Amino acid sequence: MDLDELLNNDSFTKEEIIFLLSLKKEEEINKLFQRADEVRQKYCGNEVHLRGIIEISNYCEQNCIYCGLRFDNHFIKRYRMSPDEIVKTAKTITNEGIFTVVLQSGEDSYFDSEIISYIIYQIKQNTDVAITLSLGERNFDEYKKWKIAGADRYLLKHETANPRLYEAYHFKQELSERLEHLEFLKSLGYQIGSGNLIGLPMQTIEDIADDILLCQKFDLDMAAFGPFIPSPHTPYHKKKGADVLLTLKTMAVARLVLKNVHIPSTTALATLDKNGRKKGLQCGANVVMPDFTPFPYREHFQIYANRKCMLDDPKVCSSCLQFQIESIGRKISKSKGDSLKQNAILS
Ligand code: SAH
Ligand code: SF4
């Protein structure tokens, strides 16, 4: 395959995606990254959207094999933030000039449809922000109530598009069910985000190509490609973490294939590589998701070990991010950063 020609393609077959993900020569990889940066500039412009995350609970009823919050991990201290603490933290986020609040947690049914609706309503009453929910798989009635209460977006990663691996990582849960949830969220008018974990045991380059193609099929508004980092007290604690270069190549290829989609440069990538955040932004990403979970809770949201900026004050993180973003000639967006797709229902 001729690389220069391929990089200028408008659409890509699975074989072409595998070819790009498998590039080995530094010069060729640099060409891929440069092209991803051009495509990002064309479809997303120069702005970086910040999404302030509040990790409202680390209780989880699921047992995902790779995750430190899994039900069977009895070594972490569990917490739930109160609705008032959550609403107050949302206010802190907007005061920092960030106009998306992400409410994230394990699958925690204690936060039922009423409590989450109340929190959404209170945040929307007090501030002009977009709200993203990342609360795992919940029932369809809850998704509906939360949409009516004012939620704008839902982030539910498919994690892997390989049904066999999905069952292995999630103890017989089925990928088809996960995808039904995504379909349902979309039908309710949520802007939807999904994505994979890179570097999980048994995963192949073909699987990653399928992940990108699944994101294309679902016409996502946001697609996240995060590296797996082994987490203590999980069955995968001794496994090898993801390769940074493969993560960056995945983000770059995803940008070429998916085009007008929001792609975050993840905290997990910044955890694996001290310049990971910037590298991601230069390989196709246009979103960063700083953590605003207050102390003492934040250090207990241990999805994986040694998370970047875990002990930093969120305000310090904000100025550090601003510096990093401006140092690569980009600027922080002052908008909510809604979907780039024309058919999305905007907040
Ligand atoms: N419970 C919700 C949201 C919190 S988990 C859910 O599962 O959707 C958010 C994300 O953390 C997951 O989608 C998963 O991709 C990521 N994650 C879990 N364990 C991880 C690990 N060990 N390394 C990197 N990311 C991980
Ligand atoms: Fe729970 Fe989400 Fe972790 Fe799975 S990935 S164990 S659902 S917090």
What does this structure look like?
With 347 residues, the protein is an alpha/beta fold. The protein has one domain (28-346): Aldolase class I (TIM Barrel, Alpha-Beta Barrel), CATH 3.20.20. It is 41% helix and 12% strand. The protein is globular, with a radius of gyration of 19 Å. The structure holds S-adenosyl-L-homocysteine and iron/sulfur cluster. The site of S-adenosyl-L-homocysteine (SAH) has 18 residues, from loops. S-adenosyl-L-methionine binds at residues 159, 178. [4Fe-4S] cluster binds at residues 60, 64, 67.
Write a concise synopsis of the structure shown.
The protein has 347 residues and is of the alpha/beta class. The protein has helices at 3-7, 14-21, 26-44, 83-95, 113-126, 140-149, 163-169, 175-187, 205-217, 244-258, 267-272, 276-281, 314-327; strands at 47-50, 52-57, 100-105, 130-134, 153-155, 191-198, 222-227, 287-288, 331-332.
